[in-house]
Each structure stands twice: as structure tokens, then as C-alpha cells.
Amino acid sequence: MSSHFAIAIDGPAASGKSTLAKELAKKLGLVMVNSGAMYRAVTWKLLEDGVDLTNEDAIETALRAMDVSCGVDGLLSTVSIDGIDPGEALRSEEVNGKVSVVAAVAAVRDRLVGLQRNYLLSSDVVMEGRDIGTVVFPETPYKIYVDADESVRAQRRVAVGEVDSVADRDRDDSRRKTAPLKVADGAAILDTSNHTIESGLEAAIEILRSQGLQISGV
Ligand code: DC
């Protein structure tokens, strides 16, 4: 049993969950784990290697040969594949377009969920993703489902110059059989459409307090 705790932040694409998780990590001194980066890194490597993404067996075979390594730099999680950190390539149009296909493969999820749980062996974490409160850490009492209007979410991607069909990804992430995006039991919903970063952070801290997290000095 780990003595560490996890705050689970789930929600659709561009809902503001990464920003919120980072702010919480800074404020509370926790490690922020971006689980989407792990799915993106595996997708990047499969694309690099020209693996046929319509063939689950081919994905599984390629995955078995991959060295997926997760760590921490400061308060932020890192991921590398076969010793390479894909960096900006994680957010390329190609990766955006294929990551939901790769994330629907059960073998990929099994492998990455194991790596995600490992973080709790050494740190308290705030982890963001799609299934953190439902699958990765279902027992944590600290769960927030972050949402925002679809038009606001699409606009956020455009504002950072990213080509990303958030509606398509959300549809695929919500409809897949394994660990679909949904509101976890016990999660509080936080709609960030009309929040600033600061007011969203304050709202999240109130939610976590109401869920029993002891927070002092903020
Ligand atoms: O959070 P993100 O947009 O970077 O995530 C990229 C994709 O990874 C997302 O469309 C679905 C997948 N993902 C997932 O299936 N489960 C997670 N816990 C995190 C991400």
C-alpha cells in the first residue's frame, strides 16, 4: 500500500484540465502527471515506425518492443520512448489525428496504466487524463471532472495554433469499449468555460476541500 495520494482530473480535450492540474501541482507541491502525453508518445513512435494502425496485432507487437520510460522533471512528468523524448511532436496534427485510435487498444492502456500507477510509489500526484478517476485511481476521494463548452474548447486549440478536431477525439474517447471518458463515481464537475485560470484554481481547491483534502495556507 502506498502512503501517497492522487488527485484525479479527467475531462474532454481542451477542457482546461492540464492547466488546472499544473496550477494545482504548483500550489500544493505535487507532481503533475500528464497521462495523455504517454498515449501521444506511443502514437508518435508507431507513426514514426510506419505501423499499420488499423491492425491491433501490429500495434501490440510494436508496443512489446518499445521501451516506454516515465519520470519527473521538477514537478512535471516526462515520457520517452527508446530513450527519445518526442517533445513538440507530441502535439502534431498527425498525433492529434491518431491518438484516439491507439488509446482504444486494451494492451496499450494496460501498459500505460501500470506506468501511471507507479508514480504513486514515490510521490503525491495530480494526474490528468480520461480514466484517472474511473480506472487508474478509482479509490481516490479526490476527483474532478473538468468540462467546457465545445466552442470554447475548439477556440482554445486554435488560439495556440494547434490543428485538433476535439469533437472527433471526444466522440472516439467516449465511445470506446475500454476505459471510455465518463464522469467517475464521486467526481465533482467543474465547468471552466467562464473561469479564468485563477478562479478555476480556486474553485478546484474548494472542491478538493469538500472532498476531504487537507489544504493549509492557500
Ligand atoms: O489529454 P490529451 O488530449 O493530451 O490526450 C490525448 C489522447 O490520449 C486523448 O484523445 C485520449 C487519450 N487518453 C486516454 O485515452 N486516457 C488518458 N488517461 C489520457 C489520454
Account of the protein in words:
The protein is α/β, with parallel strands linked by helices. The chain has one domain (6-210): Rossmann fold (3-Layer(aba) Sandwich), CATH 3.40.50. The chain is 47% helix and 16% strand. The protein has nine helices and seven strands; from the N terminus they run βαβααββααβαβααβα. It has helices at residues 17-28, 35-48, 56-64, 93-103, 106-122, 132-136, 150-159, 166-175, 197-210, and strands at 6-10, 31-34, 68-73, 76-81, 125-129, 143-147, 188-191. The longest helix is centred in the middle third of the chain and has 17 residues, at 106-122. The two termini are 29 Å apart.
Concise account of the structure shown:
This protein is of the alpha/beta class and 218 residues long.
| CATH level 1 class label | Alpha Beta
**Oligomeric state:** single chain
User: Helices and strands: which structural class?
Assistant: alpha/beta
Distance linking N and C termini: 29 Å
Strand content: 15-25%
The appropriate CATH architecture is: 3-Layer(aba) Sandwich
Given as residue ranges, the uncertain stretches (5+ residues, pLDDT < 50) are: none
- Please report the number of helical segments: 9
CATH topology: Rossmann fold
